[in-house]
Amino acid sequence: MTPEIALTPTTVADGEDLATLRVHAMQQSLERIGRFDPVRARERFLSGFDPAQTFVIEADGQRVGFVVLRRDPQGLHLDHLYLHPSAQNRGIGGTVLARLCRQADEEGASIRLGALKQSDSNRFYQRHGFELTHEGEFDLYYLRRPGGR
């Protein structure tokens, strides 16, 4: 059974905890491609952390992840969607992503995102209607048009 999911606003004080969560969530994927550096992963997140665009994901009242959805001239950019490994494969990410897609559809906006090559997240995004548009050295880039699945 999928737990009750809530998205709650963040504050500057949440930055360190979210950076730690990001390191845990990405460790396996980064190790797979030989690029795991926990210090770099933390610094990269904290350098762009904006509490106004970041929401904690709670499942049954427990903090299990976070999402960052940024607005830009091309629509919406899903910059981060991370779940702690203990919360993965429970339908939480799919529930959150479905909410974001409904929001985008209501606004008539596309959602863009990048995902690390060889990450399980690529299949996840494709299952939710995101189409591969191009690839870079380490990432694959996707687009979901309004009204997508």
How do you describe this structure in short?
The chain is an alpha+beta fold and 149 residues long. The chain has 4 helices and 7 strands. The model has no long low-confidence stretch (mean pLDDT 92).
Describe this structure in words.
- Helix 1 packs across helix 2 (38-47).
- Helix content is 34%, strand content 32%.
- The radius of gyration is 15 Å and the shape is globular.
- The mean pLDDT is 92.
- Strands 1-2-3-4-5-7-6 form a 7-stranded mixed sheet.
- With 149 residues, it is an alpha+beta fold.
- It is built from 4 helices and 7 strands; from the N terminus they run βααβββαβαββ.
- A hairpin with a 2-residue loop joins strand 2 (54-59) and strand 3.
Fraction in beta strands: 25-35%
Q: Can you summarize the main beta sheet?
A: 7 strands, mixed
Instruction: Kindly report how far apart the N and C termini lie.
Output: 22 Å
Low-pLDDT sequence parts: none
Number of strands: 7
Structural class assignment: alpha+beta
Mean pLDDT: 92
Q: Please give the order of strands in the largest beta sheet.
A: 1-2-3-4-5-7-6
SSE arrangement, N to C: EHHEEEHEHEE
Helix percentage range: 25-40%
Instruction: Label the overall shape.
Output: globular
Radius of gyration: 15 Å
Number of helical segments?
4
Layout: helices, strands, pairs:
Layout: E1 5-9, H1 15-32, H2 38-47, E2 54-59, E3 62-72, E4 75-83, H3 92-107, E5 111-116, H4 121-127, E6 131-135, E7 139-144
Parallel strand pairs: 4-5
Antiparallel strand pairs: 1-2, 2-3, 3-4, 5-7, 6-7
Helix pairs in contact: 1-2
